[in-house]
Design goal:
mainly alpha
Length: about 260
């Protein structure tokens, strides 16, 4: 139900902001839409307010953001206890550069490079404006009552949608592959192992996929990323840090505490 409610909010907002096909949503409208969705999201999630975790995420996100020069908005990152994308624990990328990072991603990543790569993937979704562009395509022009499958962790890479046009699903999968490719290159420029995202997806995402899936298959994603990795210059890349291991422990402690209080 949470996905349906948020999707309905986004669709209602886009009904008011759709403009020319080449630029369906203005920057101002997208930013306003993002603020609206963040307010709604915040009512349904629990944020983790721990200075050490928040400071770490801001510094890591800042280093990745430097390698995404075409971003249209400053990124706003926050950690939450929920995991709306249990398929891959992908952070949710909302319009306007708002990124919600599930605690589960900290725990699922084997190392810092994997975590950074998944974070970069969602940041690239926001930078490329995948969600609003996809939502205003002709693929769903006549499906105003269908809740939007928004790109990113909240549902875009995590659902099967039998009622959405096939062309829409194909576009969503292409956007996933595009975000993968951009993330691999961005983390490499930031000094992290560019093979980390393929390792993570290869281990975490199941191979199963249907014609209604908004995700490409695991093997399709991994093969595409490996081909990009092979073209990158050979270098000594960063894999993990002692700080990341400490942050993982802290996130695990806070998550377990939150579960005990439920």
């Amino acid at each position: 139900m949470r996905h349906l409610k948020l999707g309905a909010i986004l669709l209602s907002g886009l009904a008011l902001v759709a403009q020319e096909p080449s630029n369906p949503v203005s920057m101002e409208k997208e930013a306003a839409l993002g603020r609206q969705m963040v307010a709604e999201m915040s009512r349904h999630t629990t944020a983790i307010h721990q200075p050490s975790i928040e400071n770490y995420l801001q510094r890591l996100g800042g280093s990745i953001a430097l390698e995404i020069p075409d971003a249209n908005f400053p990124f706003s990152l926050r950690v939450i206890t929920g995991d709306p994308c249990r398929t891959t624990h992908e952070p949710g990328a909302l319009p306007g550069g708002y990124i919600f990072v599930p605690a589960a991603l900290f725990l699922a990543a084997d190392d810092e490079a994997e975590f950074a790569s998944m974070l970069a993937h969602s940041m690239e979704h926001a930078a490329e404006r995948h969600g609003t562009r996809l939502a205003t395509t002709g693929q769903i022009a006549n499906y105003g009552t269908i809740p939007l499958i928004y790109m990113g962790g909240w549902s875009g890479g995590c659902t099967e949608a039998a009622l959405v046009p096939v062309g829409f699903l194909a576009a969503a999968r292409n956007d996933e592959l595009a975000a993968d490719a951009l993330a691999v290159e961005a983390v490499a420029r930031a000094g992290f192992d560019p093979g980390a995202l393929a390792r993570y997806i290869g281990r975490v995402q199941t191979q199963r996929a249907t014609k209604f899936s908004t995700l490409p298959t695991r093997d399709e994603r991994v093969t595409a990323m490996r081909s990009i990795e092979e073209r990158l210059p050979v270098s000594d890349y960063w894999v993990t840090s002692g700080e990341f291991v400490a942050i993982q422990r802290e996130v695990r402690r806070l998550t377990e505490k939150a579960l005990q209080l439920q």
